[in-house]
Write a structure and sequence with these properties.
- The protein is α/β, with parallel strands linked by helices.
- It folds into two domains: about 1-205, HUPs (Rossmann fold, 3-Layer(aba) Sandwich), CATH 3.40.50.620; about 225-255.
- The protein has six helices and twelve strands.
- The protein has helices spanning about 35-50, 65-75, 95-105, 125-135, 190-195, 240-250, and strands spanning about 1-10, 15-20, 20-25, 30, 55-60, 80-85, 110-115, 140-150, 150-160, 165-170, 170-175, 200.
- The strands form two sheets. Strands 1, 4, 5, 6, 7, 8, 9, 10, 11 and 12 form a ten-stranded mixed sheet that branches. A two-stranded antiparallel ribbon has the order 2-3.
- Strand 2 (about 15-20) and strand 3 form a beta hairpin.
- The longest helix is centred in the first third of the chain and has 16 residues, at about 35-50.
Length: about 260
């Protein structure tokens, strides 16, 4: 079985500072998103169960991706394909899906494409479904349990109020939720072995994109929500403070009576 796992580098949310409602990304380290790591972990688990499985990590990003991909190779990917080009930075979800699709076609034979349900930064949730449409693959989304083998996948989908069990013939695309597993930490031995695994780099030109490529959707602004503090002080005993707090929250529409 050949599995392609799509990964995206994002700024570490724990290291981002907010100033004037704007995120300061300069200096924030880049990491793979939590759900992308879960997708990679799930591929590694399938590899352990299904003999002959090959896992290819497909990632898009900047020059720092060359160092970051070592984590994916250490966790379980057998090889990596990196999409590195300044042009990719301005791509929207549709363009990114198109680039990933063309890269997957260059990779060649595949049975299963795994993606995170959404990226940690924007969480649009569009890349996986768009990619499935371009590749003309059946897709299963919001997956919390996954079995693969014998030409099909069986998945349990999280529908919030219920669970849904579905099957699809391979090849197929699956997007996973973070509750599907707990990604492993790579051992020192695996990290050392990762440096010897093959890594291929592709540019925008390699995938047929030109410099005048324009995204259909452009980000106008990305601001943190305003947080106005009321600075209301409640005085008195516990009952009086509780009653005052309840009345204030009711007036704000937070609570209903």
């Amino acid at each position: 079985m050949n599995i392609v796992v799509c990964l995206k580098q994002v700024p570490d949310l724990q290291q981002i500072r907010i100033k004037d409602r704007k995120a300061l990304l300069e200096g924030a380290p880049l990491v793979f998103g939590d759900m992308d790591k879960s997708a990679l972990e799930e591929a590694a688990r399938i590899k352990e169960k299904v003999e002959g499985t090959k896992v290819t990590a497909l990632a898009m990003g900047g020059k720092k991706l060359k160092d970051g991909i070592k984590e994916a190779l250490a966790i379980g990917a057998d090889e990596a394909v990196l999409l590195i080009d300044p042009l990719f930075a301005d791509f929207d979800a549709a363009s990114k899906a198109q680039a990933l699709a063309q890269a997957i076609e260059k990779i060649g034979e595949y049975d299963l494409v795994l993606c995170g349900e959404g990226s940690t930064d924007n969480y649009s949730g569009q890349t996986g479904p768009r990619l499935a449409e371009i590749l003309d693959l059946p897709q299963i989304t919001y997956v919390r349990e996954l079995e693969a083998g014998e030409g099909k996948v069986k998945a349990v989908r999280n529908m919030e109020e219920s669970f849904e069990v579905v099957e699809a013939e391979l090849p197929a695309l699956v997007t996973v939720a973070d509750e599907i597993n707990q990604p492993r930490l790579a051992s020192l031995r695996d990290i050392l072995k990762a440096g010897r695994k093959p890594v291929q780099e592709l540019t925008a030109a390699d995938l047929g994109f030109s410099e005048d490529e324009e995204a259909a959707i452009k980000m106008v602004s990305n601001l943190a929500p305003e947080q106005d503090r009321k600075q209301v002080v409640f005085e008195g005993d516990l009952d009086e403070v509780s009653e005052g707090l309840i009345n204030a929250l009711t007036q704000e529409g937070v609570l209903g009576r």
